[in-house]
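request received
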Amino acid sequence: MRQKSSNEKLPAASEKRAGPQGSQTLLRGLDMLDQVVDGPIPLPELSARMGLTRSTTHRLANALIDRGFLVFFPREGYQLGPKLLQLGFLAQSQVDLIQTARPHIESLAMRTEDTVHLGRLDDERALYLDKIPGRRRVEISSRVGDRQPLTSTGLGKALMVDTPPSEWRRLFDTDHASGGVPIDYAVWEERMKSYAAAGRAFDLEENEDQIRCVAAPIRDASNRIVGAISVSSAAQYMDDQRMDALSDDVLATARAISTDLGWQDEKATRK
Amino acid sequence: MRQKSSNEKLPAASEKRAGPQGSQTLLRGLDMLDQVVDGPIPLPELSARMGLTRSTTHRLANALIDRGFLVFFPREGYQLGPKLLQLGFLAQSQVDLIQTARPHIESLAMRTEDTVHLGRLDDERALYLDKIPGRRRVEISSRVGDRQPLTSTGLGKALMVDTPPSEWRRLFDTDHASGGVPIDYAVWEERMKSYAAAGRAFDLEENEDQIRCVAAPIRDASNRIVGAISVSSAAQYMDDQRMDALSDDVLATARAISTDLGWQDEKATRK
DNA sequence: TTTTACTTTCTCATTTTATGGGATAGGATG
DNA sequence: CATCCTATCCCATAAAATGAGAAAGTAAAA
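response:
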């Protein structure tokens, strides 16, 4: 059916992923919402983008309007409706970072065989929310519920990658006020710059001797950092080369969790 | 079709608003989202609530899952999915207070024959965003773009009904620092208390001589005040009795705008 | 004003698509 | 190992969705 069905003259854009069958109408309606994400769009263009007739487009759009998923401004077009604001807000309260992240960090721990942590910012510290022990017999002293310094843990630095550099010095000084291993700020700053640029952070035995880790931030729909994950292991298993290799996996996992939280890649936003 | 189609034996709960026809599948799918707003719900209960067979419920739910509108946890049930977080966030950026409020305040102005204003908080002042002149020949000096004091305008006080009383004094003093009509704080505070309790505010010729108004706040999906509307008129048309009567209409209009912004009445939330 | 060029809405015969009964698979729990 | 409940799959039936085209609105042009 679709358009002409005969010779598929449409370029490409019209062919969406098919998905399960037996719910064409529902799927078409849901996909219609995606076509409306950037600004008001009039019916003729909407039906063109959907690859449907005006009739069908109009009928589906009306159903969406009836339930508040779309609104229509005459001579302007369709826009996202108030129901989405409602449901978006409710979904927020249902989504739990720990629960959402679980399957992802479990599989990450499985792949890497190392200990994986999940944490978030709490009062300028990194709060550990969840922990999957690795297969290797490595002692990682952190426990769920602990609050560790931001500037000397991988998790903490990952949570900081969006923090403006003007704040760095203050946070660094706060963390190092109570003694601890003395580190030169200039060195730390240089490393932090590269972490911020790469969107992920390392920890090189700064917080705990012989323990290194790779960490990456988790973001929500508004692109704000709401947590971070890290893979930790003994330095003997974590040479520079492996840390580089791990970066991709950790970043990808963090992105997958972010996506489950409503985040979307900017590059993917505009088709 | 539906159930038995024969004699409508079902009690009531299963019969939803029908809406436009020709999109049953889409409407059922959309309505399914409403059944999932409070916590995980397993398939049998979901199908019961929807008044559908397990087969149909399962198929629709799967389509919603495929597009990310739902997520499923085995042995737990269905929950709202990440797509709703995405779309909710995008909808937020599309929804414009002025445009959304327009039809409502136009109709309010029509009914009351008085001047209606729309405004929001801006730097501890009431910023006037829109204005529908009334039919009566009354001069209202305010103009769109003006920023008026919070504590001496109806609009401003409506924006304040959620502000903790501990802040009141400071705001009051700020507004009255630069001279103006001298008002006793004790009197003002007493009135403000009643406004906060009623969820709407009056202005009794405080800001402008001979001008009285009734105002109410507008809220978004998170129940935060994002704006306010007011009906203003000359004191001769605005005796105490009429202000009382207007309160209902102004409140209802403010609620209608709020609803268009994703707000939902707490009382209506739990069915 | 009337005309023109739209965009939006509605109608209805055709047929594709959704439906739900029931059978199957999967997992807990006792 | 038997039981019980949940989730998934299959398929003939029939109802619901489809789209061509006509009609009704609207805004700008003549």
